[in-house]
Amino acid sequence: MNSRELVKRTLEFDKPDSIPRQLWLLPWAENNHPDEVKYIGEKYPDDITWCPACLAEKPGTQGDQFERGTYIDEWGCVFENRHRGIIGEVKEPLVKDWPDLEKVRTPVECLSVDRDQVNAFCSRTDRFVLAGCCPRPFERIQFLRGTENVLMDTALRPGEFDELLDTVRGFYIDELEVWAKTDVDGLMFMDDWGSQLALLISPDSWREMFKPIYRDFIDIAHSHGKKAFMHSDGNIVDILDDLIELGLDAINSQVFCMGIEELGRRFAGRITFWGEVDRQHLLPNGTEEDIRDAVRSMTDNLYSAGGLIAQLEFGPGAKPENIIAAFDEWDCLTKQQDKS
């Protein structure tokens, strides 16, 4: 069973031979732990990969988003970064006041995907390939408008807010449609919806404004025979049932801030948990045994004839030995499963 088949059977709860792996590697880790990064990549190769963007037209970005200084992204949002190896923040939003809406320009260059290049990439690998785009509607309007403004907008609902959201939604639909017509295996989108305790807006407001957007995204994926993947940080337990209802195949979330046992009781076998081992506390501060206990807990509670991907992030503060311990423990669990 190759990696692509392994991931598909995991997503379909079809008793895969093992738990597939994926490491999210930030440049910070490559800058600070190059030898360990090389070792991990060789000993625990990924089963999931991202396709390069393969664009015929270059988006109008400026700078490097992972270096100190200023980076301007494809939408014209200006990020200020003080730390090498991670992404900065938007300090001055493009749309401070509603007359500034005229400044918003969708990055049409991102629609110039070279399908032949993408398909060639997919044919050269037996890994499960995710598209080289990642729509993020809630985060995008925060980059354009500012987080405080957006939270007020979701409560007051001025017409201009709906106009901005429709613009972002329409562009991302176009982008996903382009990628869905290639040979990639899955489409991914993201939005960080949770604080450590609850959603950033009420569940009812989320269902009214954003659930229809994710329905569109997931329907595009499924109508073209692709799987739908989503990332969302924080405590998002209040919308997991909604995402399952929409048909989301895999969710990358901070499962430890929502409670592993509760997630397992309510959702195991209904959606694939695409990681992750806790990167706030365990990966930077835990012992190797803490990490192994966490991996066993994830497997015991979330695995159900599939439905679990051994994913974690190697980012700021994470100990290399803890990354290794996590993947080693998942390998041990797979070997135990084979013997049984």
CATH topology group:
TIM Barrel
Roughly how many Å apart are the termini? 19 Å
Helix content: 40-55%
User: CATH class, anyone?
Assistant: Alpha Beta
Secondary structure category: alpha/beta
Mean of residue pLDDT values? 96
Taken together, the total number of domains comes to: 1
Throw out a few tags for this protein.
340 residues, alpha/beta, TIM Barrel, six-stranded parallel β-sheet, three-stranded antiparallel β-sheet, 14 helices, 11 strands, globular
Task: Give structural notes.
With 340 residues, the protein is an alpha/beta fold. 45% of the residues lie in helices and 14% in strands. It is built from 14 helices and eleven strands. A hairpin with a 5-residue loop joins strand 3 and strand 4 (78-81).
Strand-helix topology:
Blueprint: H1 3-11, E1 21-25, H2 27-32, H3 34-43, E2 48-50, E3 69-72, E4 78-81, E5 89-90, H4 115-123, E6 128-130, H5 137-145, H6 147-156, H7 159-180, E7 186-190, H8 203-209, H9 211-223, E8 227-232, H10 237-246, E9 250-253, H11 260-267, E10 272-274, H12 282-285, H13 288-302, E11 308-314, H14 320-339
Parallel strand pairs: 1-11, 2-6, 7-8, 8-9, 9-10, 10-11
Antiparallel strand pairs: 3-4, 4-5
Helix pairs in contact: 5-6, 5-7, 7-9, 11-13, 13-14
